[in-house]
């Protein structure tokens, strides 16, 4: 071996221990730098929002099961909408309406007791007392004796109390009004019964009102009765098909499959680290063989 070549090799071997730590540091730092640069660009999750259209079919990466909150809420909403409104009997309606009827009777009695009015004037005066009375009914009232009028008003009060005794809602009002003539006491003269029915007709109103608290309780019970909705996907089962619109249910399935969650995939990380290590070792070997002066120089090493 030539003396000059031997001397160069001995010089290189003598220099290696001095640059060895720098080579190791160079490889480590370059590998970490490449991992930091390459890892963020690796796909780690899907980006899917409700209303998006899937550009490809998405399959389950594994078998998984979950309780679907979206499906349960939909069924709960359907159950709540199917609950009819609750009504309760208003005990004040009957007393209030009978009191209003009593006021009407007193106004009519006042007109009947007005001795300054002729029969024709009394008939006209009865037209504005608050009851929808036909001319024949006003004429009958004007011609009633005191006993007949007392019997008629008593029957009217009884009739109204009878109709309002039971609970009914607005949809049943027409039927209740139609039942009034049939409720007139047997033996009551036709004219008096007709006037009694006319007097109460304007005071018949629904006796039941919406019970919001009871309705809410029933809706809550209907909602709570919906059981958990268990959903299961087999491995490789299609969750979203190409072209499907991603709705709340599909997005929930993707979420539970872990496809919308940022995940650290160790196999990808290992692949990136290995690639970086190979590249770093190759560059370090090149520099130590052909440009060892770069590794020896502290300033060049830092710049590198």
The whole-number mean of residue pLDDT values reads 83
* Strand portion: 5-15%
Could you say which structural class the secondary elements and strand pairing correspond to?
mainly alpha
| Spatial sequence of strands, sheet with the most strands | 1-6
Distance between the ends: 35 Å
Biggest beta sheet summary:
2 strands, antiparallel
The count of β-strands is: 6
> Radius of gyration in whole Å, from Cα?
48 Å
Detail the poorly predicted runs.
none
- Count of helical segments? 13
Element-level helix/strand string: HEEHEHHHHHHEHEEHHHH
User: What does the overall shape look like?
Assistant: rod-shaped
The portion of residues assigned to helices is 55-70%
Salient structural properties:
304 residues, mainly alpha, two-stranded antiparallel ribbon, 13 helices, 6 strands, 62% helix
Structural write-up:
This protein is mainly alpha-helical and 304 residues long. The protein has helices at 3-38, 69-81, 91-112, 119-125, 135-143, 146-164, 173-183, 190-201, 212-224, 248-256, 266-290, 292-296, 298-303, and strands at residues 58-59, 64-67, 87-89, 208-210, 230-233, 238-240. A two-stranded antiparallel ribbon has the order 1-6. A two-stranded antiparallel sheet has the order 2-5. The protein has a two-stranded antiparallel sheet with strand order 3-4. Helix 6 packs across helix 8 (190-201). It is rod-shaped.
